[in-house]
Amino acid sequence: MSVRGPLLAARLTRRREGRWLAGVCNGLAVALGVQVGALRAVVALLALGNLPAVALLYALAWAFLPPETDAEADDRAGAADSTGPAAGLTIGGRPADLVDAVAVLAIVAGAVLVLGQFTAWLPGQVVAPAVLATVGAGLAWGWGGRSGSAAGLGRRERLRPLFVAVGISLVILGGLATLAAVGDLRSIGRSAAGAAVLTAGAILLLGPWMARLARNLTDERRQRIRSEERSEMAAHLHDGVLQTLALIQKRAGDDKAVRSLARRQERELRSWLYGPGESNGPVHVTSGGSGRPVGGTPPVPPGTVATLLRRELDDVEDRYGVRLDAVLVGDAPLDDAGRALVAAGREAALNAARHAGVDTVDVYLEVEPDRLSLFVRDRGRGFDPAAVPPDRRGVADSISARVRRHGGTAEVRSALGDGAEIELSVPRAAGRVEERPR
Amino acid sequence: MSGTDIRSGQGGQVKPPRVFVVDDHPLVRSGVRRELEDKVDVVGTAGDVDEALAGIAAARPDVVLVDVHMPGGGGAELIRRVLAAAGAAGPPAAPATAAPVPRFLALSVSDAAEDVIAVIRAGARGYLTKTVSGGELAEAIGRVAAGDAVFSPRLAGFVLDAFAGSLPLPSDPELDQLTARERDVLRLIARGYAYKEVARRLNLSVKTVETHVSSVLRKLQLSNRHELTRWATERRLV
Predict the structure, then answer these.
(1) Tell me: the pLDDT tens digits for A112-143?
(2) Which residues from chain A sit within 8 angstroms of residue B161, using beta carbons?
(3) Min CA distance, A23 vs chain B (Å)?
(4) The domain that contains B89 carries what CATH number?
């Protein structure tokens, strides 16, 4: 009882199932959530009072309301078995709400009364042909324009041309009759009336068709977007993930290769799902396809320290099959000092990947107002910094010298069996610039 | 570093903590259960928020491992509902002994700052990525069970980023800013140091490090620092 949908929750359609005439009342009742029996009773009563008005309204609804699609019919059939025309208690699988029902019936009655005033004011010779023409349009569109493609429409398909022909004839007949009637009314200019009648006829014939066309276009576009999204996703999965899975199966014995492949795919999928971010450097495509994943983000030019660092770390990961867990705090535009810092950091990470004998290495970059700090830490076998022979100056040359050239510092902390941490720091160019008087 | 830590030391707990695992992926659930089997007492699992609410009420775990992203509301939603049901206005401040409110530890693959901050602010006592090893996870569970906070390097990085710079007019200086010591601790955690290593490096006791981290967690949950929310939404970090 509490889960009643809002008014007009269902699409306003003509319901074929359980209809008496064109299914207008039936569809309206379902859409509004009122009892179809009551709606029909009121409409019948009103018709007794003012047949032309009711007939006109009904014919208009017939012409303009789309027939219920098979999917909608199925939905409703699944929702409840009491949706038949004779079911007086529930409609559309939900109990009719008395207040709503009264409101809806009042609206229908009001519309009929207003139209009644209108038709009463117009002479009968005009109203009758108008009803005739509208009924004709309803026939033509009710049968002719049906886009439903369900099986079991064979009989209807055969009858369709007949109904269309009858409908169009009725419209023309109505138009002619109106013209003739108006001809007797000297008060209205002949040509104006003719134009009006022709226009009305054209609207009656073309209006529903155009409305239906617009509806179909919207439906089509929605479906196209959905299927494009699906195929984009499928293409991506095929390109990246399936290829990687195939490679992993082929190289199942090679721990390092498998880890590296999985990590690379993880990075790529992350960048595709979440956009550019933390562990997302250059976008790798294992398939050698278009250069980057469909719908992925374009590779960001290494304009910042963080971006360049990520890119370098990804490269080290790929080469050595270790996992570099990078935590980056802040970012700064790339300058020479930043470049040197990242290059030194890359050497430090390579060193750890090569010699530490561990699966993961922690990297931490912090951008402070006056300096950039980079830490590369592993929990590997470690070494004694003092005992590194002078001829193996890899650490000193490639790491320390680089940052020292830019006024930075490099510190190595390690002990045998206790991992190693290399701490790098360079002053920020931006900081130096600000020191100068302006 | 290992499971023995939890059983012997950690806040005087002798029994292994009772753990409930909430994750919408069956593979993850069974994987976590297998990894933790001999280290903690896994008392139940659930695949979505509703199932988890019922399961937690029935199993009364000490710690709930919760996935950040789930159908029917993520980890943050689950935490809010459990805490609301327990009548707690916010995250439990002290170890509740009478009516045990479980503590939450978030596990995720997403790493998006806004998700992490959201789940912490909802009341989680820590956040770990799913790449964490079984041993580290068990240790973290022990820590959370004892009422302490668990900061992964990434979470520490997020917090440093969020609390970077000073506010011209902090609405509550106590909550809106990190102390120099808290910053030092977070930096070391972000660099990959375990609590024990942080303590050794800063010449502190592990207990003091835990106190600092819990204090940062409290600030993260309670601070109205306007930048925190803006920062998290601005940065779609992965």
Answers:
(1) 666 666 656 666 666 666 777 777 776 666 55
(2) 329-330
(3) 39
(4) 3.40.50.2300
pLDDT band at residue B90 using 50, 70 and 90 as cut-offs: very low
Residue A377 in contact with partner chain B when CB distance is under 8 A: yes
Chain B positions touching A327 (Cβ under 8 A) are: 153-154, 156-157, 190-191
Transcribe A351-373 into DSSP letters.
Answer: HHHHHS--SEEEEEEEE-SSEEE
**pLDDT at site B20:** 93
**In this complex, is the C-beta atom of A75 within 8 Å of any C-beta atom belonging to chain B?**
no
Distance from CA of A362 to the nearest CA of B (A): 6
Q: What is the DSSP secondary-structure string of A263-279?
A: HHHHHHHHHHHH-S-TT
pLDDT of residue A153: 52
pLDDT recorded at residue A6: 42
pLDDT attached to residue B65: 92
Tokens of A356: 């530490």
Q: Chain A partners of B111 at a C-beta cutoff of 8 Å?
A: 277-279
Q: How far apart are CA A327 and CA B16, in angstroms?
A: 32
Indicate the pairing of strand B126-129 with strand B103-108: parallel
Looking at the complex, does the CB of residue A278 fall below 8 Å from at least one CB of chain B? yes
User: Does residue A27 contact residue A13 with C-beta atoms inside 8 Å?
Assistant: yes
Per the document, the length of chain A is 438
Domain extent at residue B169: 3-156+165-234
**In this complex, is the C-beta atom of B237 within 8 Å of any C-beta atom belonging to chain A?**
yes
User: Closest residue of A to B236, CA-based?
Assistant: A277
Q: A275 — contact with chain B (CB < 8 Å)?
A: yes
Q: Do A278 and B164 touch (CB under 8 A)?
A: no
What pLDDT is stored for residue A152 in this prediction? 46
How far off is chain B from A327, nearest CA to CA, in Å?
6
Question: Is there a contact between B153 and A366 if contact means CB atoms under 8 Å apart?
Answer: no
Percent of chain B with pLDDT over 90: 20
The span from the CA of A338 to the CA of B11, in Å, is: 45
Q: Binning pLDDT at 50, 70 and 90, where does residue B200 land?
A: very high
Residues of B in contact with A377 (CB under 8 A): 191-193
Higher-confidence position of A254 and A272: A254
Spell out the domains of chain A, with CATH numbers in brackets: 24-225 (no CATH), 301-435 (3.30.565.10)
ipTM of the complex as predicted: 0.77
- Report how many domains make up chain B: 1
Say whether pTM exceeds 0.80: no
Q: Strand, helix or coil at B117? A: helix
Alpha carbon distance A34, A29 (integer Å): 5
Task: Summarize pLDDT for A354-384 with one digit per residue, the tens.
Answer: 888 888 899 999 988 888 999 999 988 888 7
Q: What is the mean pLDDT of chain A?
A: 70
Q: Express each pLDDT in A83-101 by its tens digit.
A: 444 334 444 444 445 555 5
The two tokens of residue A160 are 């369709």
Dihedral sign for Cα atoms in the order A250, A256, A260, A266? positive
- Chain B positions touching A325 (Cβ under 8 A) are 153-154, 192
What is the rounded CA–CA span in Å between residue A180 and residue A128? 12
Q: What percent of chain A has pLDDT over 90?
A: 5
| The pLDDT of residue A433 is above 80 | no
Token digits of residue A205: 């014939």
Q: Which residue has the higher pLDDT, A233 or A10?
A: A233
User: What is the spatial distance between Cα B72 and Cα B76, in angstroms, rounded to a whole number?
Assistant: 11
B99 CA: distance to closest CA in chain A (Å): 35
